[in-house]
């Protein structure tokens, strides 16, 4: 899916991604906790046949594709299933003339959309807690003058009723953006990515109470991002360029026992440039992973086998709900 001038806040993120990639880093997107169970539908964003990015849903085999926001003229991105699959949290710039985006919640059929609240200059990357009572997200508190990019953002949580805002991580003295939070299945820990000075991206955890902050992965890569727990909490899937290409790995929650799942696929029509392997999320069964590759969505076994294309017309930021 190509994002070129379609919406200001995503363009700002894309510019930041380009800068960060050149410096060996990454930024945009979301991650989430996954509720254990049988594998159900996958919700994702796409701009196919629409003037703005919409929220879509499809079965894991690619059937029953449906646009959940067909009437929206505003952007709707970064969807996340609630644990009971009755609600979807997402990001939109609806009602904001400055193009800044905030977290919204709607019913699973796209009805009843409402802004969640929580303040800040901009919000991204919503992730539901396992009990469905709280949403974690990236809360931008400062923009870089003249650059149009967030230069300070923290992981925050807020009740699904829009009350009880809590800032978990603290602003850094230097430029620092904490984003892509994902809950552990027991709801006690949140894993997230931290971008420093628009360069190095690392993976951290923090307690849901705002304590016990620690970096969990120290490898040879300057880009480790987009972490998300497995349904059992025993593994974390993430993206890294440790092998020279952007690849998807899994690891233990302490950063040990890393295992390659998918290497970046190369597009022969783009002079050998990679098509991308980004934004992974576990299936509720824990047996497969959905991710964006080359602009479309794919699923793959946790051992890297049985890679299957899900979409043919684009897609990104997938989240796999239970049946």
Q: How do the helices and strands line up, and which of them pair or pack?
A:
Blueprint: H1 8-22, E1 39-46, E2 54-58, E3 66-67, E4 76-81, E5 87-92, E6 102-107, E7 114-115, E8 122-128, E9 134-143, E10 150-159, E11 166-167, E12 176-183, E13 189-196, E14 201-207, E15 214-215, E16 224-229, E17 236-240, E18 247-251, E19 259-262, E20 277-282, E21 288-293, E22 296-301, E23 308-309, E24 316-322
Parallel strand pairs: 10-12
Antiparallel strand pairs: 1-2, 1-24, 2-3, 4-5, 5-6, 6-7, 8-9, 9-10, 10-11, 12-13, 13-14, 14-15, 16-17, 17-18, 18-19, 20-21, 21-22, 22-23
* Proper CATH architecture: 6 Propeller
Approximately how much helix is present in the residues?
under 10%
Give the number of DSSP strands. Answer: 24
Low-confidence parts lasting 5 or more residues at pLDDT below 50?
1-28, 270-274
Distance between the termini: 27 Å
What's the tally of helices? 1
* CATH fold-level label: Neuraminidase
For this structure, what is the CATH class?
Answer: Mainly Beta
Rg, please? 17 Å
Query: How many domains, as an integer?
Result: 1
Query: Helix and strand succession?
Result: HEEEEEEEEEEEEEEEEEEEEEEEE
Shape: globular
Largest sheet: 8 strands, mixed
Q: What structural category arises from helix and sheet content?
A: mainly beta
Overall pLDDT score: 87
Q: How much strand?
A: 35-45%
CATH superfamily, called what? TolB, C-terminal domain
Short description:
It is built from one helix and 24 strands. It has 323 residues and is mainly beta.
What does it look like?
By secondary structure, this protein is mainly β. It has a single domain, classed as Neuraminidase (6 Propeller), CATH 2.120.10. The chain has one helix at residues 8-22, and strands spanning 39-46, 54-58, 66-67, 76-81, 87-92, 102-107, 114-115, 122-128, 134-143, 150-159, 166-167, 176-183, 189-196, 201-207, 214-215, 224-229, 236-240, 247-251, 259-262, 277-282, 288-293, 296-301, 308-309, 316-322. Strands 8, 9, 10, 11, 12, 13, 14 and 15 form an eight-stranded mixed sheet that branches. Strands 3-2-1-24 form a four-stranded antiparallel sheet, with no helix packed on it. It is globular and about 45 Å long. The two termini are 27 Å apart.
């Amino acid at each position: 899916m190509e994002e070129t001038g379609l919406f200001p806040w995503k363009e700002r993120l894309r510019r930041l991604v380009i800068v960060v990639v050149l410096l060996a880093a990454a930024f945009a997107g979301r991650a989430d906790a996954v509720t254990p169970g049988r594998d159900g539908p996958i919700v994702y964003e796409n701009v196919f046949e629409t003037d703005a990015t919409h929220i879509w849903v499809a079965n894991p085999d690619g059937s029953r594709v449906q646009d959940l926001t067909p009437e929206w003229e505003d952007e709707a991105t970064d969807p996340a299933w609630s644990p009971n699959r009755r609600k979807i949290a997402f990001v939109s710039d609806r009602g904001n003339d400055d193009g800044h985006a905030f977290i919204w919640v709607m019913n699973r059929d796209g009805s009843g959309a409402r802004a969640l609240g929580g303040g800040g200059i901009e919000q991204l990357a919503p992730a539901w807690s396992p009990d469905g009572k709280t949403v974690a997200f990236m809360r931008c508190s400062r923009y870089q003058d003249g650059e149009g990019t967030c230069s300070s953002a923290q992981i925050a949580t807020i009740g699904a009723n829009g009350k009880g805002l809590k800032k978990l991580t603290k602003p850094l003295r230097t430029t620092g953006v904490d984003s892509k939070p994902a809950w552990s299945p027991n709801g006690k820990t949140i894993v997230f990515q931290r971008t420093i000075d628009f360069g190095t991206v690392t993976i951290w955890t923090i307690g849901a109470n705002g304590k016990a902050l620690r970096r969990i992965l120290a490898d040879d890569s300057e880009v480790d991002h987009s972490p998300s727990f497995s349904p059992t909490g025993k593994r974390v899937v993430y993206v890294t360029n440790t092998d020279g290409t952007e690849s998807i790995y899994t690891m233990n929650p302490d950063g040990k026992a890393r295992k390659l799942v998918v290497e970046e696929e190369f597009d022969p029509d783009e002079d050998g440039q990679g098509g991308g392997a980004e934004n992974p999320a576990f299936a509720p069964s824990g047996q497969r992973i959905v991710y964006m590759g080359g602009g479309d969505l794919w699923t793959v076994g946790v051992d890297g086998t049985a890679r299957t294309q899900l979409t043919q017309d684009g897609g990104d930021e997938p989240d796999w709900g239970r049946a």
